[in-house]
Design goal:
Elements lengths: L1 E7 L4 H10 L6 E7 L8 E3 L2 E3 L4 E10 L1 H15 L7 E7 L13 H4 L1
Antiparallel strand pairs: 1-5, 1-6, 2-5, 3-4
Helix pairs in contact: 1-2
């Protein structure tokens, strides 16, 4: 089991979701976050507003997957988020020790879904 965390551009969220759904990955958590990488100080345009400075709007995706879905998940995020420009984002993969479905008490891979 793995936890995939991706930080992407806000305007690429729909493309990433479509790519994940096409890969049969439907269980995702989405958060709006602030941050910057190497592009700090570069002006971005987000929904018609210019943003300059230390913290830029980003989207954080958290996706728990079983091993069979790990590479399709990474591929879907990469394909959906890539623009070829600085600031496309990052993907982090962590080994997930345990998952518990609260409703049923199921544990492990079966609890992920």
């Amino acid at each position: 089991m793995y936890m995939v965390i991706a930080i992407i551009q806000p305007h690429r969220l729909e493309e990433v979701k479509e790519a994940l759904y096409a890969a049969d990955i439907h269980l995702i958590t989405v958060s709006e976050v602030l941050g910057h990488g190497r592009q700090k100080g570069i002006t971005e345009v987000y929904r018609g507003n210019k943003e300059t400075g230390n913290l830029l709007r980003k989207i954080r995706l958290e996706i728990a997957v079983n091993v069979d879905y790990l590479n399709p998940c990474i591929r879907a995020i990469t394909d959906g988020a890539r623009t070829g420009e600085v600031g496309d984002g990052k993907i982090f993969v962590y080994e997930l020790k345990e998952c518990v479905r609260i409703r049923t008490g199921e544990r492990g891979s079966v609890a992920i879904g």
